[in-house]
Each structure stands twice: as C-alpha cells, then as structure tokens.
Amino acid sequence: MGLFRRGPKRDGRDAPRDPEFSFFSADEGTRFRALVREAFAEQGLEVTVYADMVSDSAGRQFGLGNLAAVCHNDERGSRAWSELVHQHVGMVLRTMEAPSALETLPPEQIRAQLYPRVVGAEGLDPRNFAYARAVAPGLYEILALDLPESVMMLTDEALEPLGDLPYLRDQALYNLRGLPVEAHETVEDSEGMRFEVVLGDSFYTASRVLALETLVRQVTGEELTADGALVAMPFRHQIAFHAIHDTGMIPALNAMAAFAATGYEDTPGAISPYVYWWHGGILTQLSERDVDGDGLQIMIGEEFQELLERLVAKDDRHPGDDPG
Fold this sequence. Notes:
Helices cover 34% and strands 22% of the residues. By secondary structure, the protein is α+β, with helices and mostly antiparallel strands. The protein folds into three domains: 26-97, no CATH class; 101-177, no CATH class; 183-316, no CATH class. It has a six-stranded antiparallel beta sheet with strand order 8-9-11-10-12-13. The longest helix has 17 residues, at 26-42. It is globular and about 70 Å long. Residues 1-20 are annotated as: Disordered.
C-alpha cells in the first residue's frame, strides 16, 4: 500500500468524464457499471444500475463509490476490474444473506471484535446513529463490529441490547490500542521536514487517531507532550502524525496538508483531506480548501498561534539566556 494514493491514469483528462466518478472517463464509467450488473446477474440477482448505486427488486441498495475507487486505484488498471467487482459483489451478498452476527456470536466475542471507527458525515444517517460522537467538524466516531469479510457499523438499534454505551466504547478503544502497526514509513526531506505515516489493511488504521498516544508510543517509543501532535487521516487505511516538540512542526504542517489532500482524493474509505492539531484528545482543524477550491490554506486559531509563538521563542533562545 503506497503512501500517495494516486490511481493509474488510463486516459487523458481531456476525455469526457463520468458524471458521478470523475476519476473515470465516461467510457470507463460505462464499463464499470456493466461489470457490476454482470456480477450481480451471475449471483442470480437482477439489479437496476444508477450512477452511484444499484437497487434490486426488494428495494435493497448497494453503493458503488468505494468499489469504483478500489477499481480506479488498482495498479493493474482496468484489466483487474472484473475480478475486483465479482469479488466485491460476492462478499456483499454473502454478508447480507448470512444470519446477523449480532444474533449468532456470543456477547464476549462481540466485545472482542468491537472497534471505534472515525467516519465522515456523508452517508451517516443521524436517525440511525444518534449516539455518534463528533470528533471534529464533519467527522464522527461510531462503533463497528469486525467480521471476517466485512465491517458492520452498529446503529442505535444494534447497540441497544449489547449494554451500556460508555462501557462498549471503552472496550472498543481497548481493542483499538491492541492493534499492531502493520507498516510504518517516515516522510522527510533534506531540510529537516519529517512526519510519520502508518499504513495497514485494517479498516481501523486511520481511526487510531482516537488512541494517538498509544500509536505514537508504538511507532517512536516516545510519549506525546502536552503540545500534542499534527495528525491527518486521509482514508481508512492511513494515518500520518508529527509529534510537536519545536518549530520543526511548521514545515511538517505544510507538507502534511498537501499529503492529506492528495491521499483523500479518489480513495475507498476517504475520511478527511485536512490536517488537525491533536491536543489532549481534542482535534482542531488546521487546513482548509481555499476560496477557489483549487488549493489549500492553513487556518491558525488563537490557541494554536500561542503554541507557535511559544515554540518560536524557545528556538530563538540562546544557550545561557535566562529561561524565565
């Protein structure tokens, strides 16, 4: 899994684009949806194909956004699409037709497979996820049940018989802290800019922002200070961080802003294109699209400005100066 998630370019950007998935050309979008219809038909299910989803005669709907992004990002190009689509459709139907894991798994196993997950507001129906906790503007924490072939995002109704919500969340966080670091890379340049990136196949890699202190300790062997860290979660399989110690966080902030925006584009499980300041478990957004929507700008609030000024003063202080 690469650091920079850019899909293989199969045609020029001047080709007519698909109206729903702009990373596809119009022709690629047509082929992709034809493969989806074919895969469902081979499973004995006729579906009506729309721009961003399919629907069967029973009214069940299957979103296509993540699958389209998976196809787009596969390094093998369009020759792999048929395999990817057929695998995905088979998994989806097996999951939907199997007995609910909430009914078949014992409570202790459910608790052992419970994880918190950070998701964007898009697609999160507040009528079903009233318990969702806001962690940053447009980002929410929900609970999910990890299963062999899928992840079940637990609604209010699903959680009700499982017990007390604070207890379930504590158990989910405990499980999250116990995850191994699957892969770690350092992004740095010759001028000293540096930040760490953790990658993994786990659907909860980016959600480890909820237990960032543990992750930083696992990766660097150090504890976060009260100044916290810069952090970015472009998509579910990637999280980047820079522990704040000095003004080295300034070039890291600029680099991470570009990194997050790039990693967010056209990816399955996209979470956020922005960089945040993590301090005491609170996330403060630091980057934003500019007015034209074509670039990025850094937003610095009063509290972060005070941190920045303190770090600049600390770096400017010469040995022997009175620290008071």
